[in-house]
Structure formats: structure tokens, C-alpha cells
Specification:
This protein is of the alpha+beta class. The chain is built from five helices and ten strands; from the N terminus they run αααβββαβββββββα. The strands form two sheets. A five-stranded mixed beta sheet has the order 3-2-1-5-8. The chain has a five-stranded mixed beta sheet with strand order 4-10-9-6-7, covered by helices on one side. Helix 2 runs antiparallel to helix 3. It starts with a helix and ends in a 13-residue tail after the last helix.
Length: 271
């Protein structure tokens, strides 16, 4: 029984590694703020590692050095004022060292002033509606047809054969590289969440409330996310795709949409 359980666990681990992209750490992203958030995360992580090493190191040394078998005698004092001051002041100093850069980053995350463009994203069960406020462009973004067909019951289509299965859409969000994009989020029905790891954004879309965030993508490419709030039976079929293109390509895309283009043009990434 134990042997079968171990083999099953190894098989599951191998299947997971073969069929899914995973990582032990958060991505660094493609924006200045996502890189800053990553650096902040790593700073706090290493502080926690250092604290763990010191605390558990002292505990282990104390257990070994002061055990009865080693002939240790119990202390005669009940407390130490000096020790109490040190172990109170030291955590306060560490928290301040963490709080100052964290507060600076949080302030930057909320500073959406003077954007180059504003996009209103409205969540529906189970798709997104995007409106470019200053451009007069708007469209719905839904799960791409190949994924819709593959997920259908008894479709006979192997999901592994579908590129970007459940992570592709029919109409992506297109934004220009290097421009500040203000994103206004709301919902038409239930609570959703706009989650884009590459942009370090995870913001709820709530009915009757407009949440605000922003980003400035510094790399071109196609980046994928999902709705990260349990919004109903088709929650898993509500992906988000952002295409970052050069400013000239973005203007061409805008003209295509404004001229009545029926489909969103897939821009070739320009380096």
C-alpha cells in the first residue's frame, strides 16, 4: 500500500511538471513597479530567513548546551530587563526597515495621475468588456474559440493540443509600450478580480464600485492572466490577455478599430 502511494505521488509530480508551468517564486514582471514589488518581496523574504536562522539557531544551541545530561544547572533569575528591552526593540527596528520601502512602493502603486490612456474594464459572467475612454474604442473579450471547443463535453479534442488552453481570448487588450495606462475596474454582476502577474496587478472588480490601478509596460509581448475571484461555474474560463506593442503599432490598431474593423488586429511584436 505504501509502495503504491509513493509511486502514485511520483507519477502525479511528473505529470504536473510535464503539463504545467510553475515556479517557486513570483515573477519579476515587465513594469518598473512589478520589479520594485519583486525586490521588496525578496527583501522581506531574506529578512524572514535571517530571523528564522537566528531564532531556531538559538533554540537548538540552547537545547543542546543546557540539557540535563550535559550537567546544566537551572537559572536562579526569573526575568532579564535587558533581554526584554532587546527582544522588543529589535523587532520594532526590523519592522521599520521593512515598512519604509513597503510604504513607498504602495504609494507609487496608487499614484495613477496623468495617464497616457485610460481603459475601463467591466467584468461579466464570464467575460470582460474594455472601453478605451479617450479613443472611442470598446469591445468584449471572451475565451478563445479553440479553448471553448476543447472544453466542451465529449468534444474529442485533447486540451494539451490547444495552444494556451484556457489562457487565450478572441480580443486581447492592446497597449503601447512605455505609456502609463490607467485601469478602472468594475463589475456588472458579481465580484471578479483582474489578475495579471506580469504587471503585478491583482485588483477586484466589484459591482457598484470603481477600483483603480495603473501600469507602464516596458517590454513588448503577449502576457496572460485570469479572473482570480470565484465568480461562478465558468470562473475558470475567464482569461485576460494583454498585448504590449510599439506606439506606432498601437496607433495603427486604434485606427483599425475606429474605422470599423470587425476583428482586433493581432500586432506583430516590434522590438
Amino acid at each position: 500500500m505504501i509502495r503504491q502511494s509513493i509511486l502514485s505521488l511520483l507519477g502525479l509530480t511528473a505529470a504536473t511538471a510535464a503539463n504545467a508551468e510553475w515556479a517557486l517564486n513570483m515573477p519579476q514582471g515587465i513594469t518598473e513597479l512589478s520589479a520594485e514589488t519583486f525586490d521588496l518581496h525578496m527583501m522581506v523574504f531574506w529578512w524572514c530567513v535571517a530571523i528564522g536562522v537566528v531564532v531556531f539557531g538559538v533554540m537548538i544551541i540552547s537545547l543542546i548546551k543546557h540539557r540535563k545530561a550535559a550537567g546544566a544547572n537551572p537559572a536562579t533569575f526569573s526575568h532579564s530587563t535587558t533581554a526584554e528591552v532587546i527582544w522588543t526593540a529589535l523587532p520594532v527596528v526590523i519592522l521599520l526597515l521593512m515598512a519604509v520601502p513597503a510604504a513607498e512602493t504602495m504609494i507609487k502603486l496608487e499614484d495613477s495621475r496623468d495617464p497616457d490612456l485610460t481603459i475601463v474594464a467591466t467584468a461579466y459572467q464570464w467575460k470582460w468588456h474594455y472601453k478605451y475612454q479617450d479613443e472611442g474604442v470598446e469591445f468584449y473579450s471572451s475565451l478563445a474559440r479553440p479553448s471553448v471547443e476543447a472544453r466542451s463535453k465529449q468534444s474529442g479534442i485533447d486540451p494539451d493540443s490547444v495552444e494556451n488552453y484556457l489562457l487565450d481570448v478572441d480580443r486581447p487588450v492592446v497597449v503601447p509600450k512605455g505609456k502609463k495606462v490607467r485601469l478602472l475596474l468594475t463589475s456588472n454582476d458579481v465580484v471578479h478580480s483582474w489578475w495579471m502577474p506580469a504587471l503585478a496587478i491583482k485588483k477586484d472588480a466589484i459591482p457598484g464600485i470603481v477600483n483603480e490601478t495603473w501600469f507602464r509596460a516596458m517590454e513588448t509581448g503577449t502576457f496572460r492572466g485570469q479572473c482570480a475571484e470565484l465568480c461562478g461555474k465558468d470562473h475558470g474560463y475567464m482569461p485576460i490577455v494583454v498585448e504590449v506593442v510599439e506606439p506606432d503599432a498601437y496607433q495603427a490598431w486604434i485606427q483599425t478599430r475606429m474605422n470599423g474593423g470587425a476583428r482586433v488586429a493581432r500586432m506583430e511584436n516590434q522590438e
